[in-house]
Amino acid sequence: MAAIDLAVIGGTGVYRLASLQDAEAIEGDTPFGKPSGPVRVGTIRGRRVAFLARHGEGHSLPPHRVNYRANLWQLRQLGATRVLAINTVGGITERFGPRVLALPDQLIDYTWGRASSIWDGEGGEVLHVDFGDPYTPSLRAEVLAAAARAGVAVVDGGCYGATQGPRLETKAEIARMRRDGCDLVGMTGMPEAGLARELGLDYACLTVVANWAAGCSGDAEITLAEVLAHVEAASAGLPGLFDALLG
Ligand code: HPA
């Protein structure tokens, strides 16, 4: 299996990589079941890139039903060693308004009931992987350098709070997350990051801020139309960033 230079997991509103050429759709199975959909393996600037839509290509899987284990297992099985995850989020603190791209460096996990370890079979290994820095520093540095070369603004750092969803949060929940130190809130950051660490994959999370989180901008209702419009606008910088990252 030829190595894959970069695997990209697309979140809400990011179902294709526009610059991926000659892509082949690979369906597959894993010990954990089927991934969210086909992995599209092609090239960007002559480098092999794999793309997987986390929620399925028609966005049919809610965050708590995504088979995170199967997705990462499949990417690794296809030869990926580094994963850049794209996650749509709400912004909590000032620097993280709608349309901002950010590369968080910390996370807090508020999810529950998700299969959160590769190693939970009877008689299997019990692993306590180091997770002090949940995102791989060297991959983060590469993405930040590529963004700077491409002239794409990306906020360096921030704390991602992973909630269970699929409903959005209450104002009180967001106020608590702010007190906890969260800058961003999303529903898919965990267990994905922890599983990637268990599997020995380099992993970084590129967040696309789609809205102010509940109560962070008055009483305005958060609508799907708003979320998708902001994601589309913020995603305009992604092809340039990927080009620079793989160039
Ligand atoms: N909360 C949780 N997840 C999200 C949000 C939000 O406000 N916006 C986009 N994904």
Automatic annotation (TrEMBL):
Pathway: Purine metabolism; purine nucleoside salvage
Assembly, per entry: Homohexamer. Dimer of a homotrimer.
UniProt GO cellular component terms: cytosol
Annotated site residues (Important for substrate specificity) in this chain: E169, L224
Family: Belongs to the PNP/MTAP phosphorylase family. MTAP subfamily.
One GO-annotated biological process of the protein: purine ribonucleoside salvage
Catalytic activity: a purine D-ribonucleoside + phosphate = a purine nucleobase + alpha-D-ribose 1-phosphate
Residues annotated to bind phosphate: T12, R54, H55, T188
Entry function: Purine nucleoside phosphorylase which is highly specific for 6-oxopurine nucleosides. Cleaves guanosine or inosine to respective bases and sugar-1-phosphate molecules. Involved in purine salvage.
SUPFAM superfamilies tied to this protein: Purine and uridine phosphorylases
Gene3D superfamilies named among the record's database cross-references: Nucleoside phosphorylase domain
Protein name from the UniProt record: Probable 6-oxopurine nucleoside phosphorylase
Database matches in HAMAP family: MTAP
InterPro entries cross-referenced by the UniProt entry: MTAP (IPR010044), Nucleoside_phosphorylase_d (IPR000845), Nucleoside_phosphorylase_sf (IPR035994)
Keyword annotations from UniProtKB, A to Z: Glycosyltransferase, Purine salvage, Transferase
Other remarks in the entry: Although this enzyme belongs to the family of MTA phosphorylases based on sequence homology, it has been shown that conserved amino acid substitutions in the substrate binding pocket convert the substrate specificity of this enzyme from 6-aminopurines to 6-oxopurines.
Binding residue positions for substrate: M187, N211, W212, A213
Chain ranges of the Nucleoside phosphorylase domain: 6-245
GO terms of molecular function: S-methyl-5-thioadenosine phosphorylase activity
